[in-house]
Amino acid sequence: MTQEQWGTIRDELSKTLGANSFQSWIEPLTFIETSEGIARFGVPTNFLGNYVSQNYGDVLLSKITQTNPSVRRIEFEVVTAERPKNPGVQHDAPVPVAPAVAAQPPVNDVLAGSPLDKRFTFDSFVVGKPNELAHAAAKRVAEGGPVTFNPLFLYGGVGLGKTHLMHAIAWELRTRQPHLNVLNLSAEQFMYRFVQALRDRKMMDFKQLFRSVDVLMVDDVQFIAGKDNTQDEFFHTFNALVDQQKQIIISADRAPDEIKALENRIRSRLQSGLVVDLHPTDYELRLGILQSKAETYSQMYPGLELCPGILEFLAARIVSNVRVLEGALTRLFAFASLVGKPINMDLTQECLTDILRESERKVSIEEIQRKVADHYLIRHSDLVGPKRIRTFARPRQVAMYLCKQLTTRSLPEIGRHFGGRDHTTVMHGVRRIEELRKQDAQIDEDVELLRRSLEA
Ligand code: ADP
Ligand code: MG
Questions:
Q1: For 85-114, what is the mean pLDDT?
Q2: Are 189 and 114 in contact (CB under 8 A)?
Q3: From 333-347, 354-368, 377-391, the region with the lowest mean pLDDT
Q4: I need a surface site. Which of 29, 37, 144, 376 has the fewest CB within 10 A?
């Protein structure tokens, strides 16, 4: 494979993988050579090589074999920083082949943390009741003033923004205090490096390096629970840094006292700083996050119409975690742009069947009807009855709309619950309320109020 061919593959990957993944994982690769069926790439750290090989190995190989059928395998080698990175397509001639690469990464590589995700900044972090404390604490640490709470311990369920906040702190520190040596890594990487240092008899280097950082961030620390030697080393590193007044930021998926198999002395050290949790998201936060992401997507897919009520629907229905929420939105925009249709309720239901089914709400049609009838002070029999006067028809449409939003029942099924109405009538009702919500503040408020009380 020539550098030019690699350049083409890179360009294609940047389109298919998306800018973030591409920048984090593919851009740092340097193509070295192909020989004897092996394509060799240089990577800045072992971790990156492992990650790329596990997550993008197949994609890379299949791309490469399209132009170079003889390649059967990809290998990664750690190369030092002096080597030119990303020679790019402008180099027609092959770049010098890497000198015999050292079998082990230089010791200094131990200090390379995880690549920071460009998307994970304070700007892109939506603040709501469930995360405002964690956000405020992270902000304070990121200002880099005198160390007030040490460590900062952030905990919360999966996908609630722990890693996002940690990267945001690192980004902020990088701009505010570029002289600081900030190390951000996962507990898993910590262990990996520790084990490697043991194996290579480089413990002294390991210790020195970890003790030379100004800010240490260890993500998902629950990982080292039960791994005695790693815990031990972590504890010593931790103490050394705290003694030097260096800031430590830790995250875990649960509170320190809930992490089993964690040594007591570590637990109490972890609790000695500020412990803040990220609560499960509420509707408002989910909607805020969706709105902010939808804005980004609308720029990525100009001209794509997002119908009113869709984000509200998703925020109400997908309660699991932010990652799932984001995934749903990503898929929705990609799907809509592919089929060239506006993102309306039908398309949403079709495209997200699996996700919606998983997070199926327990709200029943009967419950919705009862609440709506109560709210508009009409009888249930009138709500589902045949009379078409506005006093009954409007609440009926609101109820149909809520049934469509809050349950996974099909239009015909909903129709059956409303005195055997046709599914087209239900569809008309749903559309009508979608439109009215834009024009009529009162209706919008009614719907919102009802939805909230049904979800409570
Ligand atoms: P955790 O580390 O707690 O499992 P992450 O930090 O990886 O969760 O967050 C999962 C995804 O959700 C990320 O893409 C992140 O950007 C996004 N996310 C989580 N909380 C928020 C928030 N408050 N505002 C914006 N995006 C968020
Ligand atoms: Mg995380």
A1: 40
A2: yes
A3: 354-368
A4: 37
pLDDT beyond 90 at 153: yes
- Distance from the alpha carbon of residue 132 to the mean position of ligand 1, in angstroms: 14
- The greatest distance separating any two alpha carbons of the chain, rounded to the nearest whole angstrom, comes to 85
Between these two residues, 58 and 21, which has the higher pLDDT value?
A: 58
Q: How far is the C-alpha of 399 from the C-alpha of 391, rounded, in Å?
A: 13
Predicted confidence band of residue 97 (pLDDT cuts 50, 70, 90): very low
The answer, yes or no, to whether residue 333 has pLDDT greater than 50, is yes
CA–CA distance, 383 with 379 (Å, rounded to integer): 6
How do 30-35 and 38-43 pair as beta strands? antiparallel
Nearest residue (by CA) to ligand 1, atom 19, is 161
* CA of 156, nearest ligand number: 1
Question: Is 289 touching ligand 1 by the criterion CB < 6 Å?
Answer: yes
- Name the E strands within 147-289: 152-156, 182-186, 215-219, 247-252, 274-278
Read off the pLDDT band of 265 (50, 70, 90): confident
Hey, is 117 helix, strand or coil?
Answer: coil
What percentage of residues in the chain have a pLDDT greater than 70?
Answer: 91
DSSP 77-115: EE--TTSPP---TT--SPPPPPPS--SS--GGGGG--PP
Handedness of CA 398, 309, 417, 386 (dihedral sign): positive
The phi, psi pair for 307, rounded to 5°, reads -70, 150
Report the nearest atom of ligand 1 relative to the CA of 219. Answer: 2
Q: What are the chain's domains?
A: 3-107 (3.30.300.180), 129-277 (3.40.50.300), 283-359 (1.10.8.60), 365-455 (1.10.1750.10)
List, as ranges, residues with CB under 5 A of the ion ligand 2.
162-163
Give the global pTM: 0.61
